[in-house]
Structure formats: C-alpha cells, structure tokens
Amino acid sequence: MSHPATPRVTRPRTVLAMSGETRAAILAPEALDRLARVADLDPRLLVTDFGADDPAQRTGLHEAEVLFTGWGCPPLDPAALSAMPRLRAVVHAAGSVKHHITQDVWDRGIAVSTAATANAFPVAEYTVAAILFANKHILESARVYREARSRVNLLERFPGVGNYRRTVGIVGASRIGRRVVELLRPYDLRVLVHDPYLDEADARTLGVERTELDTLAAESDVVTIHAPELPGTRHLFDAPRLALMRDGATLVNTARGSLVDTEALVKEAATGRLNAVLDHTEPEVLPADSPLYDLPNVLLTPHIAGSQGGELHRLADAAVDELERYAHGLPFAHAVDPRTLHQQA
What we know:
7-stranded parallel beta sheet; NAD; oxidoreductase; Hydroxyacid dehydrogenase; NAD(P)-bd_dom_sf; D-isomer_DH_NAD-bd
C-alpha cells in the first residue's frame, strides 16, 4: 500500500526587509531565534533600501528565496525584483501589503502572506470596548460625576443607558469587522452589517442582519467603521449620512480617517447630538486647534487600536508560522489573493 509522500522540509534562504524601528519592535530575541531555526537567515542583514550599494546586501538578495517584511519595506518594483532572481515568497509581519507589493510581484508568480488576521485582534478588542462603553455612556457619566462630586441620580440622568438589546452597525465585513461580530456574540445586541460583498448566506452564517448603509446609520446606537480606504469609500460618512444617525448615537472609527468627513463630524459633535470614538482621523494628526481634542463627547486616541507594544509579537509569531509552513512545503494559511486585494485595506 502506498503512503502519501512526506513534504520535504527546507530552510529557505530568507532576508529581512523593513525599517530598523520595525525590526526592533517586532522581532524580539525569541522570535529571531525561532526565525533562525526555520530559515537560513543572516540576522545582521536588514534591507531598508533595495538599491543600496552594499556587497553583503547584493549577495543576500541574489540568494534570497523568501523576503520577511514589515513596516518600512521599500516597494518591490522591477528594479528591486531584478536583484532577487530566486525570490519565491514574501512573508509580511504586518497588515496591508499595498505599500510594498506591486503588480510585478504577482506577474512573477511570487506567493505573498500577511499577518493582517493577527493584526485584526487588537483592533477588534478596542472596538468592542468602545461599543460597550458607548452604550453605557461612560464619557458622559464620568464627566457628570466629576462635576457633581456627589451621588448622581442615574435613572434621572441616564434613563436609556445600557447594552441590552442595543443596535450596533458594522460597516465592512472585513477581517476586523468579522472579528468584532465574533466578539459581540456573548452580548444581547442586534448587529447590522453593511458590506457590498456580503451576501445573505454569509450574513446568516455570521448571525447578523445585512442592510443598506443608510438604514444601518439610521437604526444603530453605535456605528463602527471597518471598511477599506478606496476612492469609493472616501467620506463614506459625510454630512447627509451623519445626519441620519440617531440623537446620542456614537461613531467609532478605527479604519482610515478619510472615510469620515472631519468637518461634518465636527459640526455634528459640537452640537452634542453625536458622540465619537476616533483612532483615525483626516488628517492623521489633527491640527492643534481642532475642536475634536476638547469636545466632551469625543474620545480621540493616537492610532493605538492596532498592534502595539507586546501585541507586535503576535505579528512576528504569525509570520514565522507562515514561513514554517512554507519550509514544510505547505501553502500559506493567510495568503494574499491579488484578485480580492482591491477590497481590502
């Protein structure tokens, strides 16, 4: 009786390509040790510029079968790829690959993996915390208590507070959006989702209601944005759509700032009608005189929802897992599909 052939295990020649800051943050000594066990790697070689005049770099790239990339990796354009004739795979220890993966990579048939799924975890956790706090009116109640410095009549001041049977609207059934859905399952919430690529069967599997965006905006107590930054999503929440939102509703944005019309949001928030939790804004850093810094119904955070601190080690672990699969002759678990890349952040 024949048996399936055992995949051949290799130690692919691998080169690091990312900024020095990224390497220091993501690749802890334990991760580097594991990476060196999986791959044939020179840990001293770090590529930050594919065109650098460095003999050691030229030799390393010429022999490289895999690029292990992170934030700060230069674009893999034709000039860069010409220096890597043996390149077969790119393993990205971060989320989006749009900054460095070009059409030339796909044309050469190079496989690409991303740690975007691992990066979705902390963003989803931040989002769920924001949703639960928003429905409990945490910002407002904390302000009232701070001002009163005495017992607060909660039934009088906050008659509608709470998460029971509230409606949450999720814009984008992305990795992060789906993770938010999963984390919200233990709560007694109605969950609406808008995504042009989500069909009814998929919505039933997720356990959510598929709906049009205007309906979602009008019926949700909290709206959270997880759609990609595309020409068609710019100012997805403009003045007319923000006006559809319920009085007292909260807008959460952990996606890209361009999806929300900042000027329109300032006007709505300044009246006190809407609340906002914003980890991304347009511009990315608001001017020092922006009212959003000081409005009591707005919580601004400095792009902290994604992987930070110790969470960065999850990205390295996920990327090394992928490299280990490649070394065992297995397909990537989190391969990037160029046919659907335009739908992603």
